[in-house]
């Protein structure tokens, strides 16, 4: 009997080179001859504001057909243990595996749980309770610790009628993990310019460098993002280091799907909040802090210098401007909650006016008031008159209404680029192993 199986992973990260997406590629290579894929491998980004997240806060999932779910689950457990034993997980991390026989992406409870993990804080107990509750209706298997949160979320992700993108990830040979990555930025630029407008955040045209290389001693060489899955392979020519293997993921990256909610800004939530600017403070290093009066109270909003255009726009804000901010709530201290801004919409500008004394009709100099009702005198030529009044001038503003985003290289993983048109899934794709996995050296 052929069973639809969905298996997901999270928290398989390590300071010694582990990575959840890297593990997923190794696991898929292990089972590829047993199963029939019904979707691309999934890369699921979660709430970027969670402080104890894995790098990039991503879980993964595979959807396929196979007749023996228990066999697959045992392979996954053994491989996770084997993968993590030589490279202990990061502090407070514990890998999580969830496997469900059925279509959890159509289950409203799993879909709701997934959406909550995009914008809110979720407890491990919540994930375990959901898995236990649903195990009465579907065959549910799970194993591990805190990683069960992300792994459970991945089960409800990227169903029909949701936007999506792709990421093609190239992985490094183990002997290169502690060496500098070799990706040719000029070639990335050439490929980026040669493709239609279907690539996302692969080259930073302001800083004139690629945005595809991670930092740190992890297995990823480079990741190329876009909506044109076949054309992403063109970036392979930019690699000046031989990869270990590569895997093409379907993802919720850069979709902004369910990312921001208009709700009270409790710590670690991603919120969309509208209000009136009370004051603007520019810090010595160029960061900007504004105080925003909202229906929930007054909150500090931070615009970091490295967000580029977003930071520059924030410097032009003045008291009375009405804005809508999307950002992550950071509890920097018990009494100080700050919203770190990811984007800003300027809804209306508060134009203020100043009153100036009139100019002298004789010599053109600015006149001086002699007191209320006493008229004006020109200090330069001595001309006096009571037949003029102060002139009201509207103060010029350089800020315009509109949407302001960080520069391309500073976009959060889930943030949508302004001009990218996203595909919507209407049918699950027919996927072959050769469409998604390329092995240069057997992992």
Automatic annotation (TrEMBL):
EC numbers: 6.3.4.22
Domain (OB) ranges: 271-347
Annotated Gene Ontology cellular component terms: cytoplasm
Domain (TiaS C-terminal zinc ribbon): residue spans on this chain: 358-399
Protein location: Cytoplasm
GO MF annotation, one: ATP binding
Catalytic activity: cytidine(34) in tRNA(Ile2) + agmatine + ATP + H2O = 2-agmatinylcytidine(34) in tRNA(Ile2) + AMP + 2 phosphate + 2 H(+)
Alphabetized UniProt keyword annotations: ATP-binding, Cytoplasm, DNA-binding, Ligase, Nucleotide-binding, tRNA processing
Gene Ontology BP term (one): tRNA wobble cytosine modification
Stated name of the protein: tRNA(Ile2) 2-agmatinylcytidine synthetase TiaS
Lineage of origin: Archaea, Thermoproteota, Thermoprotei, Acidilobales, Caldisphaeraceae
């Amino acid at each position: 009997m052929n069973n639809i199986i969905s298996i997901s992973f999270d928290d398989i990260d390590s300071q010694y080179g582990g990575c959840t997406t890297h593990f997923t590629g190794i696991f898929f290579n292990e089972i590829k001859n047993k199963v029939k894929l019904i979707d691309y491998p999934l890369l699921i980004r979660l709430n970027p504001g969670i402080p104890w997240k894995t790098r990039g806060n991503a879980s993964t999932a595979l959807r396929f057909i196979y007749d023996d779910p228990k066999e697959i689950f045992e392979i996954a457990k053994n491989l996770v243990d084997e993968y993590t034993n030589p490279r202990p997980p990061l502090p407070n991390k514990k890998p999580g595996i969830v496997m469900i026989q059925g279509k959890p992406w159509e289950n409203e409870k799993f879909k709701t749980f997934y959406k909550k993990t995009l914008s809110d804080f979720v407890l491990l107990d919540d994930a375990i309770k959901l898995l236990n509750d649903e195990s009465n209706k579907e065959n549910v298997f799970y194993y591990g610790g805190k990683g069960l949160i992300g792994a459970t979320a991945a089960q409800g992700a990227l169903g029909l009628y949701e936007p999506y993108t792709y990421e093609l990830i190239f992985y490094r040979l183990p002997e290169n993990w502690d060496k500098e990555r070799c990706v040719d930025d000029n070639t990335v630029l050439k490929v980026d310019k040669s493709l239609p407008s279907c690539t996302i955040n692969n080259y930073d045209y302001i800083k004139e460098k690629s945005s595809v290389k991670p930092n740190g001693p992890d297995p990823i060489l480079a990741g190329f993002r876009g909506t044109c899955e076949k054309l992403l392979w063109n970036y392979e020519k930019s690699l000046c280091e031989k990869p270990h293997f590569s895997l093409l993921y379907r993802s919720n990256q850069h979709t902004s799907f369910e990312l921001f909610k208009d709700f009270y800004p409790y710590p670690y939530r991603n919120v969309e909040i509208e209000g009136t600017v009370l004051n603007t403070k520019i810090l010595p290093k160029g960061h900007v802090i504004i105080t925003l009066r909202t229906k929930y109270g007054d909150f500090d909003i931070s615009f970091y210098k490295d967000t580029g255009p977003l930071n520059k726009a924030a410097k032009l804000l003045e008291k009375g401007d009405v804005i809508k901010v999307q950002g992550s709530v950071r509890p920097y201290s018990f009494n100080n909650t700050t919203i770190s801004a990811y984007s800003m919409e300027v809804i209306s500008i508060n134009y203020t006016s100043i009153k100036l004394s009139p100019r002298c009709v004789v010599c053109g100099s600015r006149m001086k008031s002699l007191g209320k009702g006493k008229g004006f005198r020109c200090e330069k030529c001595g001309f006096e008159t009571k037949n003029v009044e102060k002139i009201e001038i509207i103060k010029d503003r350089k800020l315009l209404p509109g949407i302001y985003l960080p520069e391309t290289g500073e976009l959060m993983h889930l943030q949508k680029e302004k001009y990218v048109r996203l595909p919507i899934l209407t049918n699950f794709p027919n996927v072959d192993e050769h469409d998604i996995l390329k092995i240069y050296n057997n992992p």
